[in-house]
Amino acid sequence: MSDWEVVIGLEIHAQLATRSKIFSGSPTAYGAPPNTQADLVDLAYPGVLPVLNGEALRMAVKFGLAINAQIAPRSIFARKNYFYPDLPKGYQISQYEHPVVGKGAISVLLDDGTAKTIGVTRAHLEEDAGKSLHEGLANASGIDLNRAGTPLLEIVSEPDMRSAKEAVAYMKKIHTLVRYLEICDGNMQEGSFRCDANVSVRRRGAAKFGTRAEIKNLNSFRFVEKAIHYEVARQIEIIEGGGKVVQETRLYDSDKNETRSMRSKEEANDYRYFPDPDLLPLEIEEGFIASVRATLPELPDEKASRFTRDFALSAYDAGVLSASREMGAYFEAVVAALGQSHAKLAANWVMGDLSGMLNRDNLEIGDSRISAAALAALLKRIVDTTISGKIAKEVFESMWSEGKSADAIIAERGLEQITDSGAIERVIDEVMAANPKQLADYRSGKDKLFGFFVGQVQKASGNKANPAKLNELLKNKLAGG
Amino acid sequence: MLDNFIAPYDATVVAKLKTAGMVMLGKANMDEFAMGSSNETSFYGPVRNPWDPNKVPGGSSGGSAAASAARLAPCSTGTDTGGSIRQPAALTGITGVKPTYGRVSRYGMIAFASSLDQAGVLARSAADAAAVLRVMAGFDPKDSTSVDAPVPDYPALLNAPLKGLKIGLLREFFEGLEPRNAKLIRDALAVFTSLGAETLEVSLPHLPMSVPTYYVVAPAECSSNLSRFDGVRYGYRCESPKDLTDLYERSRGEGFGAEVKRRIMTGTYVLSAGYFDAYYLKAQRVRRLITDDFRAAFEKVDLLAGPTTPTPAFAIGAKVDDPVTMYLNDIYTIGANLAGLPGVSTPCGFVDGLPLGLQLIGPHFAEAKLLGAAHQFQLATDWHTHRPGGYE
User: Of A183, A476, B66, B352, which residue has the fewest beta carbons closer than 10 angstroms?
Assistant: First the structure.
C-alpha cells in the first residue's frame, strides 16, 4: 500500500434534456448551424429578461429526490460576473449560496464487490455559456451562442473518493441515474455530461487535505481516470521533491495525457456573485415536490436489489443489468418469456454474447439486432435441450447477422441435438473402433482419457449429441457395457 | 454606447400602449442609462427646463418631463429607479407616477438597477396619468418580477372621497427643508385637510440612510447589468482593437460616459470579495429596515406625504461636478424605490417662478388611492394647469 492517500471530489455538469433553454424559449437541440438557436434573450439584447423554464426545475428536483437530498424550499439564482465573448450578458445565471438541491448521497459498487457511499454536497441549476471557435478563422474567433442558456445541473460531490477508479465509478453511477431519470441524455461526446475533478494527495493518516488542483472539462470516463492518475503522480512527485502543490485550475490534454496549468488561485476571477434581481427567489412547495416524486421511476439501486432478490442474481450481475433502464427492460423481457427460474441463463446471455455483439457493432441495447423475444426463443431451445449451449452460440451469431429466428436457423441447418440413444451409441461405437489404443489405455486406468472420447464423439456428431446423454452412454460403453 | 442602436423589438409597455391606440411621437432625451438627476449626463447634451432654459429639467426622465411640460406630448413614459419620474415631474410642474415594483413590466426597459427600476408615466394631470397607467400596467410572463394581480380601473376610481383618509407627514422629509418650500408643502396638505383627510406626523427612522443604501445597491446591480455592453454584439465598438482585453477596455472606456463609469466602478467595488459583506450585504439589511419602517407607517396611515425634491430646478452646471450633492437631490424619492412602493408627484406651487412637487407615497398596489388623492387635489387647485411661458 502506498504512503499516499488520494482525495477526489467531482463537479459534474449534466445538461438537462429540456426542449427549450433555461431562461429563454430557444430550442436546445445539438448540432444546429451556429447562432440559429439563440434569441434576443440569449444574445443579451438590452431590456430582455430571463424567465425560468419550469421543466428544468422539475428535473433538478427529480434528481434531488433520487439521491435523497433535501429540496430547498427557497433557493436563489445568483449572477456570476465575468467577461467573455461567449457569455453575452457578462454574467452567468447560476446558484451560489442557496442551491435548489441540498445534501444527498449515492451508493457506488466498487471492483471488490463492496459498496461505498459518496456524498453529494449540492446540485444547482445554471445556464451554459456559448462556444468560442478559434479554428478555421484567420485572426478572428467565432462565437456560437446556440449552447448559451442551455440548462445545466451542476452536481458537486463531497471529497469522498480515494482513487481514480472510485471517481469513475461515482461518475458512471450519476451518469446511469440521470439517464434513468430521463433528465439528461448523457451524451459525453456532445458535452451533455462532463466533469471537473478536484484532486489532492496527502500522507496516509494526515488529518488535513492537501492542496488541490481542479482539472477542468473532462468529457469521458477514460479521461477522468487518466487525468487523475497523471495529476496524482504529478502532485506526489512535487511533494516528494520537497515542493508544494499550488492551488490552481488545470486543463487535461488527452493527446499528450497530461494536465497543465490554466490559471492559479491568484489569477482566478473575482466573480462578484450576488442574487439575480431579475429572478425572484425560487419557492418550492411540498405539493410540487410530491408531484415530481410521483414521476420517479424505479431507480438503479432498487432495480438491482429486486434482481438479486427475485432472480437470485449476484450483486455484480444485478448491477450490470440495471445499469440502464433499457438494459433492465430488455433483460426482464427475456426473463418474462423464458420463465423466472431461468433468469441466470438470461443474465449470462444478455451480459455475455449480447453485450459483446453490441460492443462490437457499437450499438445501444435499444438498437439490438436481436430482440428480447427472439433471444428468449433461442434460450428456450437450450432449456428444452433442442440444442446445446455451444450450438446456441452459433445460432445466436447467425441470428445477429441474418436476422432470422432461432428455430428457423436450427431447422435450416439441422442443428437439433441428438438425444436418441441408439444414434449416439452408434457414434460411440465408431469412435471406440477408430481409437483402439486410447480405449485400451482408458480401460487400464487412464480415466483422464474420458474427456478425449467426449470430444471425439461430439466432433463426430457435429456437436449435436446431447451432452448429458452422451456422458451417460459413453461411460457405459467404455466400461465395456 | 447605443447611439444609432435601434431596438429590434418593442418593450411590453410600448406594445401595450400601441395596442391601446397611442401614437409614438419619438424618443426623449435622458441621462445616460438613466443615471443622473439633471439630464446632464446625456450623451446628447442636457435637456433644458421649459420654465427656465438655464435650469435643469431633472432626471433621468428629463426629456419626457420637459416634453410633457412644454405640451409637446400629452404624456410620456419614463423609468424610475431612484426618482427618475417623480423628480423631473416635480421640477417641470407636471404629474409623475412611479408604480409599485412589479406593477408594470420591465421587459424592454434597459436595466439600470433591476430591483429598483419601474416604468411609469408623466402627464399633465393625475387623470391623464391614470388612463395611461391603466393600459401600461399588468402581469407580463416575460418579466418574472412582474406581479400577477388584476389592474384596477384607475380612471373610474379617481373620485373616491378623501374623507377619513389618513395622510402621514414624513418628519424626516421636512428636516432641513427651506422654509418657502416647506410652506408650499404644508399649504398643499391643508388642501387635503379641507377635503376631509386627516394629517398626522410619522417618522421613518431609517429613511435618512436611504441615499447611501441606494448608492450601494443601484451601482452593484448596474455594474452587472451593463456588462452586456461589451462591444461584441451591438452598440459601440472601439476602432481596431488589438486583442480581446483591448476591445473590452476601450469599447467600454470610450463608449460610456463619466457618471456611468463611476457607478460601474462603485458597483464592482461593493460586490468584490472582501467588500461584499461590508457594503452590499449591509445595504440590503438597511434596505429591509427602511421597508419595515414604511410597513409600520402604513399601519397608521393610508398615504405618506412630503416634498418630491429638496428644491425647485437648479441651474445647469450647478451640481454636475459634485456627484454627492447631485445624489442628495433624490433624497426624498429613493425610499419608495428601496421599498418597492408607488409614488406620485403633483405640482403644488411655485418658488421664484419654478414649480415644486408634492409627493405622495402609498402602500404596495395603492396606485388607485394615490391617483385619486392627487386628482382630488388637482380638482381643488390649479397648479397643474400652469404652463411655462412660450408653450401656451
Answer: B352
In order of A107, A120, A159, A173, A211, the CA distances from A117 in angstroms are 4, 10, 12, 11, 24
Q: Domain for residue B222, yes or no?
A: no
DSSP labels, B274-320: TTTIIIIIHHHHHHHHHHHHHHHHTTT-SEEEEESSSSSPPBTTSST
pTM of the entire structure? 0.90
* CATH code of the domain containing B340: 3.90.1300.10
Q: Where in chain A is the domain with CATH 1.10.10.410?
A: 421-478
**Does B325 touch chain A if contact means CB atoms closer than 8 Å?**
no
The three grid cell numbers given for residue A209, joined into one nine-digit string: 487535505
Contact state of B221 with A143 under an 8 Å Cβ cutoff? no
CB nearest to B11's CB, from A47, A272, A273 = A47
Q: Which residue of A has its CA nearest to B228?
A: A89
| Residue B391 resides in a domain | no
Q: Which of B189, B235, B215, B173 is nearest to B377 (CA)?
A: B189
Radius of gyration of chain B (CA): 20
Q: Which residues of B touch A52 (CB under 8 A)?
A: 144
In a domain, B182, yes or no: yes
B3 in a structural domain: no
Per-residue pLDDT tens for B343-390?
Answer: 999 999 999 999 999 999 999 999 999 999 999 999 999 999 999 998
SS3 A268: coil
Cα–Cα dist A412/A353, whole Å: 22
Is the Cβ–Cβ distance between B253 and B239 less than 8 Å? no
Contacts (Cβ under 8 Å, ≥6 apart) of A57: A100, A125, A282, A284
* Cis peptide upstream of residue B61 (ω within 30 degrees of 0): no
Q: What is the DSSP letter of A163?
A: S
Rounded Cα gap, residues B179 and B200, in angstroms: 19
Side-by-side strand order, sheet with A274-275: A91-95, A77-81, A274-275
Cβ–Cβ contact A74 with B under 8 A: no
Return the amino acid letter for B324: V
Kindly provide the ipTM of the predicted complex, given to two decimals: 0.95
The DSSP annotation for B81-130 comes to SSSTTHHHHHHHTSEEEEPPTTTB--TTSPPSSTTT--EEEEESSHHHHH
Q: What parts of chain A have a pLDDT lower than 70?
A: 1, 481
**CATH number listed for the domain at residues A421-478:** 1.10.10.410
Range of the domain at B122: 12-204+298-385
Q: Read off the pLDDT of residues B176-202 as tens digits, 9 standing for 90 and up.
A: 899 999 999 999 999 999 999 999 999
